[in-house]
Amino acid sequence: MGGTRNRRIVVIGGGVAGLTAAIQLLEQDCDVVLLEKEELLGFHASGRSAALFSETYGNEIVRALSRGSRVDLQAGGFLSFTRGAVHVGFAGEEDRSAVDDLFKRLRVLEPDIIRLSADELTDIVPAIAPEHSCGGVFEPGAMDVDTDKILQTVAARLRKGGGTIVLGAEVLQIESIGAEMRVHTPRSVYRCDAVINASGAWADEIARRAGLSGLGLQPKRRTAFMFDAPGFETRNWPLVVDIGEQFYFKPDAGRLIGSLADATDTVPCDAYPDDIDIATAVYRIEEATRLRVSRPQTPWAGLRTFATDGSPVIGPDPRMPGFFWLAGQGGYGFQVSLIAARIAASMIARASADDLLDPLGVDHAAIAPDRFIQSAVASPENQPAFSQDNVHLLHNRGIAP
Ligand SMILES: Cc1cc2nc3c(=O)[nH]c(=O)nc-3n(C[C@H](O)[C@H](O)[C@H](O)COP(=O)(O)OP(=O)(O)OC[C@H]3O[C@@H](n4cnc5c(N)ncnc54)[C@H](O)[C@@H]3O)c2cc1C
User: CA distances (Å), 109 to each of 49, 61, 64, 248, 329, in order?
Assistant: First the structure.
């Protein structure tokens, strides 16, 4: 890596997180090498998403980051269609009150939210019979994200701007030697000033390869498939998700994507679809609608990786200068991508991203890795003291506190 530029950065991971961070760093005059273990970019989560942008999805931090990404996503032409999303309640009092509650909650966040009656819902999605539903909550501003376009545009800009992308380069070990970091792959060792861990489901594993403990990031498998809906013109339907998140379907290139909306804990891997998850999704979709899924096609699965508090992890690791996290994007990696990348690049190149975080009302502490590290390295003296009552209770049950 040549030395005429500001800082030499190695980005680990060729998904949306790594690519978007790499381009931002290049634009801050860093010398960037992106290492991806697969032979293709976007091979894991980033190539397997449902491609929706919704500003009401996720916790407060995710929603703020999504709002922050929206302008850039729009400016880049990456939000391709205003699809809308509808949370549907089916017959029964429980669903009705869940729909009403969700409406109240979302309307505070987004004034355009609409409470649909059963008939209004059928007008929008004719496959849901009015006698089977209690209507829904409609979010008109949800958009389709052109995920391929993001990955391809960013990779092309990166290469054209002098960044380096190395495929088939699995990072095996990361060493910190003085002010320099060394990133070992089977064929080369890359010397740099900082490393960005944007390795998705492998983020904790990459930390271990740097000699650090992980942050408790949990990959969760989600299975999806395509199906046809003969007799229905589905192109302009919104994403339809049932109020209990038991399934969803969404138009995609003339067909529908179906999913159980599953979130099964797993280890980092090349995720494969589970037949039972597909069969269950088909059953639930057919039970709830007039759709008949005669043949689920091209099933796939991907990993959505979450921190325990549901917020992304963006920031330097206080245990190893130069080791930087950009992980835990969960089911929102595309919708938060552009602002998350700008925040990460700003922290690395300028040591602060307050000018980006403050307008969003996000405190850096809410996304910093430190929030997990403190508890992970807490010594016995730092453990919260048990009250005497609890000590007696535990003692009586034969448990040593
Ligand atoms: C079914 C499904 C639906 C989704 N729907 C949406 C949606 O509607 N909207 C949305 O915004 N998000 C959605 N997501 C989430 C989104 O896809 C992810 O949050 C995002 O893709 C994560 O990007 P990433 O770059 O962090 O991870 P990845 O795309 O997984 O990239 C990480 C990369 O790191 C590489 N890597 C790992 N270890 C190493 C190593 N040792 N050396 C080198 N490289 C390594 C991996 O090979 C991988 O390519 C969905 C995800 C799934 C699975």
Answer: 24, 13, 11, 22, 21
**How many Å apart are CA 166 and CA 164, to the nearest integer?**
6
Bridge partners (DSSP) listed for residue 325 = 197, 315
Any atom of ligand 1 within 6 Å of the Cβ of 349: no
Residue 90's DSSP bridge partners are 133
Centroid of ligand 1 to alpha carbon of 41 (angstroms): 10
In what side-by-side order are the strands of the sheet with 52-53?
52-53, 143-145, 79-82
pLDDT digits (tens, 9 = 90+) for 222-248: 999 999 999 999 999 999 999 999 999
Q: If you measure from the C-alpha of residue 312 to the centroid of ligand 1, how many angstroms do you get, rounded to a whole number?
A: 13
Percent of the chain clearing pLDDT 70 (strictly above): 92
> Domain locations in the chain?
8-48+147-215+309-376, 81-144+218-306
**How far is the CA of 65 from the CAs of 134, 147, 209, 360, in angstroms?**
32, 17, 29, 7
Same fold? 8-48+147-215+309-376, 81-144+218-306: no
Q: Which residues contact 96 (CB under 8 A, 6 or more apart)?
A: 89, 134
Give me the architecture of the 81-144+218-306 domain, per CATH.
Answer: 2-Layer Sandwich (3.30)
DSSP string, 123-143: HH-TTS-GGGEEEEEEETT-E
Note the pLDDT tens digit of each residue in 245-254.
999 999 999 9
Angstrom distance (rounded) from CA 255 to CA 253: 6
The pLDDT assigned to 387 comes to 40
| 313 vs 330: CA distance, rounded Å | 10
Q: Is 301 exposed, middle or buried (0-12, 13-18, 19+ CB in 10 A)?
A: buried
Residue 264 amino acid letter: T
Measured from the Cα of 332, ligand 1's closest atom is 11
Instruction: Find out whether the beta carbon of 223 lies less than 6 Å from any atom of ligand 1.
Output: no
Q: Provide the residue type at 68 as one letter.
A: G
Domain 8-48+147-215+309-376 coded CATH 3.40.50.300 = no
Whether the Cβ atoms of residue 158 and residue 22 lie closer than 8 Å to each other? yes
Cβ of 51 less than 6 Å from ligand 1: yes
